[in-house]
Amino acid sequence: MNITINATTRKDQGKGASRRLRHNEQIPAIIYGAGKEPDTITLNIHEITHLLENEETYTSILDLTIDKKTQPVIIKDLQRHPAKNLVTHVDFLRIDMNKEIVTNIPLHFMGEEDNEAMRLGAILNQFVTAIEVSCLPANLPNSIEVDISKLGMGDHISLTGINMPEGVTIIALTHGDIEAHDQSVVSVQEPKLMSEEAQVVDTETEEGATEGGDDKAEDTSGS
């Protein structure tokens, strides 16, 4: 899916210029990388807000059109208003389609409804929700699916257990000592037994009763 973002060249800079842009329903942005000088640009606030409602915008190669010239980019950073949650600035990274890029890709855990252990009350623990990967831009996935349907009670999936798309490499597993960096991604945990919870309640009740009895004894002796 091709996603196009329209922009115009921006010459004015500074806080005052940025406030004027936002007043006119525009926001400042910058594009850098690929061995070229950074370019300051302007985006339409409504267009970029609408595009960001689609999760794939964050992990896709975007067609950024500046004054009718189009170039491939990815979103590198976003700034938002702390109270209004409005986008206030966007950083774009230029992409060379012939060179690998490094970026974060979200994990989508699939098969929860088919997991027998979870149907019996097991708890799913997600330790990692996104992983840093390296690949050519043409191989960049929007997300990576992790099948949890077969996980039993106490089972887990680590980084090496993820089925990666062809041409996509997990950065954490390229540091030499794979075992040291092969962290758990997701696990299925046994829920607390009802009897254990009941024991806790009984203990608290007994302690409360003892405290109440001591108070009563003290009152009687003092009368």
From TrEMBL:
InterPro entries: Rbsml_bL25/Gln-tRNA_synth_N, Ribosomal_bL25/Gln-tRNA_synth, Ribosomal_bL25_b-dom, Ribosomal_bL25_C, Ribosomal_bL25_long, Ribosomal_bL25_short, Ribosomal_L25_dom, Ribosomal_uL5_bac-type. Pfam families: Ribosomal_L25p (PF01386), Ribosomal_TL5_C (PF14693). Residues 101-192 form the Large ribosomal subunit protein bL25 beta domain. One of its GO terms (molecular function) is structural constituent of ribosome. This is one of the proteins that binds to the 5S RNA in the ribosome where it forms part of the central protuberance. Belongs to the bacterial ribosomal protein bL25 family. CTC subfamily. This is Large ribosomal subunit protein bL25. It comes from Bathymodiolus thermophilus thioautotrophic gill symbiont.
